[in-house]
Amino acid sequence: MKAAPLNQTLPPFDEMVELAELNPTAFEQFKKDMCEEMILSASSNMQSRLWAQQSHIDRVIGKCKNPNQANMVLMTELTQQMIRFQDALDGDAVEEKESAVIIPFKPRDNDWS
Fold first, then answer.
1. CA–CA separation, 30 vs 23, rounded Å?
2. Which is the most buried residue in 19, 26, 47, 94, by most CB within 10 A?
3. pLDDT tens digits along 74-85
4. C-alpha distances in angstroms, 72 versus 27, 34, 78, 101, 103?
5. CA 61, 63, 67, 70 torsion: positive or negative?
6. In 3D, which of 26, 25, 27, 34 has the Cα closest to residue 7?
7. How far apart are the C-alpha atoms of 109 and 64, rounded to whole Å?
8. Is a pLDDT exceeding 80 seen at residue 103?
């Protein structure tokens, strides 16, 4: 089932900056609400993947010390995902598997009986 398209509108950038500076808790709640609204507008079969992606983003941001670091780390994450996506489209996504040495198990005679 296809979800109805969502038309989210963000406040002007300067207002968002002011909110982030003056009331970081309200800014975080605003971001959370916008993300939730967007995810819930997606098709039901995509929602679990989007929640997982949002959880990953939240964990990444949580480790950052400032907004600039968060932006750089998220850009790196996005770039890596785009490279993997491009490789998959190009058919280069075949991962090389490491070979393992398999040592057969040789049972020994027990004298316990």
1. 11
2. 19
3. 999 999 989 988
4. 20, 22, 10, 41, 46
5. negative
6. 34
7. 58
8. no
State both tokens at 30.
């605003």
Between the alpha carbon of residue 13 and those of residues 9, 10, 34, 36, 72, the distances in Å are 11, 8, 15, 20, 19
Against a cut of 0.85, is the pTM above it?
A: no
Residues ≥6 apart with Cβ < 8 Å to 25? none
DSSP state of 63: T
Residue 6 structure tokens: 């969502």
Give per-residue pLDDT as tens, 18-45. Answer: 999 999 999 999 999 999 999 999 999 9
Rounded CA separation 71/17 (Å):
15
